[in-house]
Amino acid sequence: MIALNDITIRFDGEALFEKISFKVNPKNRIGLAGRNGAGKSTILKVIAGLQDYDEGQLAISKDTSIGYLPQHMQIADTQTVMEETLTAFEHINELENEIAHLNKAIAERYDYESDEYMELITRVTDKNERYQMMDGDKRIGFAEQTLAGLGFESKDLKRPTSEFSGGWRMRIELAKILLQQPDVLLLDEPTNHLDIESISWLEDLLKNYRGAVIMVSHDRFFLDAITNRTIEISLGQIYDYPVPYTEYTKLMKERREQQKAAYENQQKKIKETEEFIEKFRYKATKAVQVQSRVKMLEKMERIEIDDMDSTVMNLRFPPAPRAGDIVIDADDVGKHFGDHEVFSNANFTIERGEKISFVGKNGEGKTTLVRIIMKEIEHEGKLKTGHNVKIGYYAQNQPEQMNPNKTVFETIDDLATGDMRTKTRDILGSFLFGGEDIDKKVSVLSGGERARLAIACMLLNPINLLVMDEPTHHLDMYSKDVLKKALKNFDGTLIIISHDRYFLEGLTQKTYEFREKRVIEHLGGIEEFIRKRKLERLNELNTTSGIKSKSDKASSDNANASNKDLYAARKTLDKDIRKAEKKATEMEQAITDYEKAIEAVNEKMADPEKAEYEKDSNELKTLEQKLSEAMENWEAALQNVEMLKEKREALK
């Protein structure tokens, strides 16, 4: 469908890519991997026809349609959500107008036997068939389903798009692209503005998408669930692996280890050969052997180790000043914006050293509660900050809030005070801003570079409460791993909002779920929360338990233990059900085998030349008895499956 042949792109004389080539076939699910700035987004733009290249060729099959969702775009604000979404069906709308025009022309004619009249009938019939094949009469329903999957409520569909944030308007653009069903989907960080439920919905949709998908994403679970191929971009070259992301990381490591071992073995052999040549170069009796080894070295294909971008940022939060035992104390906290209630009656205590995640759908109040903690907005109820609490805050739009006209160095230097002014260059270096990079304007930085700079600014002052709202947006896999390690080693208190399950795993010990205008506390980390809620990716958030108040600690612990027992019982039953179903399947196959054997014996007995009546009769009797036993065992197995399933249902 699509082929990139020896594509080279240069910026300011330096090659971003050097003669890269790969093909995209139907049904490919490709994840582009690589560091921030490696060129992943540039490849998408090349395929979309939005980026010129210096050398090579881009070949796209005729009639191949392409849909492209960039990270950032300018979105029109002149229509309602539904009106803007329905522009995705422009081709159907045009077809509908053509059908109406033809029907009008037919109604005005009376020459029913003429060739012109029959031609009109043929044309309108063909177009009606195309209209039906394209489900033209169902487009509003499709649009509503897609928008609902991306988190829009029915009341939102008549609202002007201008009332929505950039993230929500990005969802409208994604909905339009998905509804157009192009042959190739190009998605650049599609999950950045999606909550966990919407990510799960999009994941299911892309798994079954009819065309090819090429995506840039730093969500490991999302990539593993969808992709079947990973193209790594590193130092201007690409490496193509026919596996999802996690499997690719293993194969990449194995490839480099094998390459290194082969290189070292060859270098050892070269050294030994060169020593032999040098030792016997001037001995006439060894002349033939020396010449043979010289020729061998000349013909030897030298093994090279692929260059690898091993630069990683060095992030370590300074020791946290000691705070009081209670860091945050909330008593009936709530928030309304006019008549709109975000949440109410939130009662919780956050103690020193706890690491907590906020999860839930967008719009349920996660960022609102963070802003309350930061004292940025008024609220109902009481929220107290403990003794000597010093807060470091990373807002969701922190990278975008930096002054675009300042340089990297000016940005951090303006915030530094006292002795920290002497350490700003070291801090920038640890965040991969070295040499001339510190003189770059913020406006030219990539999303990942801005995010790194914003995090670097947080190290200028000692903190003991770190509040981070979606800090992993735009960070590549390597930077996310470094940030996660630094947060695990941070000896203060952490509150983090994130939709990235991999990032949260092993990081937090308590989860606050925001749902239906409530804040619900779940003891344990994100892994325990997922197991307890029977969620694969935090979808179907439908618990009925409320937040645990300070006086409910004992009952909370008992409930948690009870939930663990319930989980263990369900797990055991699931195992028993699988065994019973396997037994039923085996018996069903045995029945089929016995029936075929009986049929063969009967056919043999019907042929006088082949029949051995006494022997055949005994065999037939034995087979019929075994068939009867298999039937009884099959029925018993089915009853056992039903019984176990009823028990499993009762434990929900």
Automatic annotation (TrEMBL):
One of its GO terms (molecular function) is ATP binding. It comes from Salinivirga cyanobacteriivorans. Residues 2-260, 328-541 form the ABC transporter domain. Keywords: ATP-binding, Coiled coil, Nucleotide-binding, Repeat. Residues 563-651 form a coiled coil. The keyword Transmembrane does not apply. The keyword DNA damage does not apply. PROSITE patterns: ABC_TRANSPORTER_1, ABC_TRANSPORTER_2. InterPro entries: AAA+_ATPase, ABC_tran_Xtn, ABC_transporter-like_ATP-bd, ABC_transporter-like_CS, ABCF_ATPase, P-loop_NTPase, Val-tRNA_synth_C_sf. Gene3D superfamilies: P-loop containing nucleotide triphosphate hydrolases, Valyl-tRNA synthetase, C-terminal domain. Pfam families: ABC_tran, ABC_tran_Xtn. Belongs to the ABC transporter superfamily. ABCF family. YbiT subfamily. This is Probable ATP-binding protein YbiT. It comes from the Bacteria.
